[in-house]
Amino acid sequence: MMIPPRPNRGILGGPVARLVGAGLLAGLLGGCAVGPDYQAPKLQLPGSWGATKTSLIANGSEPDNRPPDLARWWERLNDKTLNGLVEAAVAGNLDVATAKARVRQARATRRQALAALAPVVTGNGAYTRSDNGSNVSAGSGDITVAGPFDSFQLGLDASWELDLFGENRRAAEAATYGLDASEETLRNTLLTLVGDVTTYYVEARGYQARIALARRTAASQRETASLTRTKLEAGSASAVDVSNAEGLAASTEADIPNLESSYQQTVNQLSILLGQPPSTLNDLMKRSAPIPSPRQPVPRGVPANVLLSRPDVRLAERQLAQSTAQIGQAEAARYPDISLVGDVSTSSTKLGDLAKSSSISWSFGPSLSVPIFNAGQLKAAVDYAQAYRDESFLAYRAAVLTALQDVENASVALHFERRRSRSLASSASSYRKATTLARTLYQSGSTSFLDVLDAERSLYSAEDSYLQSQVAITTDYILLNKALGGGWTGQVDTRTPEVNDEMGPRFVKGDWAKEFIVSNRQ
């Protein structure tokens, strides 16, 4: 922005004329603020996703370019326990509480910045009792000519910075963008939280399914080992067959402790995400449930949607806007500051006389502050702000590219994992038939025991891989919704403090979460 020329102060005659001139100048420059005005950058984005041919729609139809419906996307997994855990996590998670506190900080910072645009009025008062030492003696007695006296004083000081070049306005603008950024940080925290809760819950159900599979398989293999021992006693099997059968069952049983350990660690992490002690969810989660599975595809829309829906992208854009405003703030510091200051005071020897029989004094006039020499410090501050703005711009571009990459990767992963899962299901079905046939043939003496062992080992591996693939499909579904910007869309209270200075920390939200957990133990 071009700065208007400074007025020729020589043509302003006296103090009154100078004051009027300052007021006129303030009016002329009231809308002027140095530095660049922020405009959202226009980035070249692809018109469609690169993974079009490998869209999420498994039936091979054309990809759905409608804007994605991301509201409460986790409910499409049709798991009421999961839905309740998400609600409890939003209410009790400590990272969310921290992000809400930062929103309150940013809101207060903005109020401070806006207050700098308004006049400042300060009241003062004083009371003194003094004696000037004027008591004198006359003859045989003391004659009091003057004694201790009281003095009361009240005053009012006012000042108003005219902000001719917009330093305070740019600061308020930057603080506003900073508040926007803190709100986007909260949204991003909620997005991450919902995704983490859903992911850990799915993993926990996956571990439960794998533990149940390992136990069923081990029990079946123990039956095979018992049958083999019976055949050994009958002379139709060897001790090697018995040892192999028992070894295979023991190997399968050895997987169970590792799976149980992973399950418990996952449940512990879920409890922490709810802001609760690690063992809180043990009773709620001990009843097994199916692995949640998505039933419908996710419309991805077009790449430009990520600029509107991804909170991390919107956060980077708000930070870019804030850094742009800070350039003007630094630039304005290089120009003169003009303030209007005034004060009025009244004093008397009696408190009741302050408003009537008192001496009143007042003063009013402008003050000017002009930076003359600072060894380039202020110019360096501008250079720093400009370089920081460039860094913010690059961070914004990187956030956009990362968002596009996340969507592409999650889309491809989900598509190919579904293909893999279909192959694993077919594999498990074939090995199940092979195992049944091998056992039948072995019992009739038509095949060797090694065929039974290979069939049982292959069946267990195929079924376990299929369960892991089911977990991976839902995890990729979660990642895709996160990549598209799906998070919490409900109301979040950002105004209530977490700590009451009189009563200490609040535990209402944590208690609510615990009540939900207890109610679901039934």
UniProtKB/TrEMBL annotation:
Pfam families per UniProt: OEP (PF02321)
Subcellular location: Cell membrane
Keyword Acetylation: no
Organism encoding this protein: Ancylobacter defluvii
Protein family according to the UniProt entry: Belongs to the outer membrane factor (OMF) (TC 1.B.17) family.
Protein known as: RND transporter
Top-level taxon in the UniProt lineage: Bacteria
Topology in the lipid bilayer: Lipid-anchor
